[in-house]
């Protein structure tokens, strides 16, 4: 199949950022399952250690690659890598000139990659067509939690021939979390609630829950037995009466998606009488940290700790 024919045959795939990863949906086999030869922890997994023109089509992978590898091994990154509201590596990314705005076959083939790293939501038929054109595909595991990110780092480190560097990143990530816990241990625990743009919150099993606990707070959504990231009625949220409300600073690509600027909760009749709103205790978290699916994610714990316990970080 030639490049023109392949480019016509392939549909576009959205390039997702951070925690917007889709579910497996049976499209790709995760590590250790039939169909994916690479299982974290297997020393012989470094099949791609000689890859020198790697293409990434996921922001979390962008961030990991730029910490794992010299930029000379990376042929292209996603367009999101240049957006400081969602990317932690805008400076590092300048060393890689090409971007992949979408999963376009002709664009990818023009880069002459020797490896494409495919996220979990990629359609099997699309990847199959790219493989038919001679593109090597590394299917990466799903990534939702800090535990997943540890697995992800090791998986990519082993597959790309840099397992020691991957372990360094795992230690750095975990060290941030341990440092936050050490600073906030024994402090009073403010009651915290995350409020999303769509009226959602983050409960048990989320990174946010882990980070609030580490930062010396109580996640009210978890206390209310909310699992994962789910919608919460305003009435229920108000009844929880949080001491502190946290929101995300990332609103998506407004130009592409027509999104409006974040409304101030103080201007919302439903929220303006909430104690945290009246007291000015509504804080915006870095979307680049909060939504990251890379080792940068634990920075959110430190960010929350600085909000809840600024005295722990006083000079």
Topology:
Layout: H1 3-9, E1 54-56, H2 59-68, E2 74-78, H3 90-93, E3 98-100, H4 105-110, E4 115-118, H5 124-132, E5 137-139, H6 146-159, H7 163-184, E6 191-194, E7 200-202, H8 207-214, E8 218-219, H9 220-223, E9 229-231, H10 234-240, E10 244-248, H11 254-257, H12 275-278, E11 282-285, H13 287-290, H14 299-308
Parallel strand pairs: 1-2, 1-4, 2-3, 4-5, 6-8, 6-10, 10-11
Antiparallel strand pairs: 7-9
CATH topology group of the largest domain: Rossmann fold
**Series of H and E elements:** HEHEHEHEHEHHEEHEHEHEHHEHH
Helix-residue proportion: 25-40%
Number of individual domains:
2
Characterize the largest beta sheet: strand count, sense, and whether it forms a barrel: 5 strands, parallel
Instruction: Detail the poorly predicted runs.
Output: 1-44, 254-260
- The CATH homologous superfamily of the largest domain is named Nitrogenase molybdenum iron protein domain
DSSP summary, beta strand count: 11
The CATH class of the largest domain, by name, is: Alpha Beta
Mean pLDDT: 82
CATH architecture of the largest domain: 3-Layer(aba) Sandwich
* Derived structural class: alpha/beta
What is the radius of gyration computed over CA atoms, rounded to a whole number of angstroms? 21 Å
From the N-terminal CA to the C-terminal CA, the straight-line distance is 63 Å
| Global shape | elongated
Strand order of the largest sheet: 3-2-1-4-5
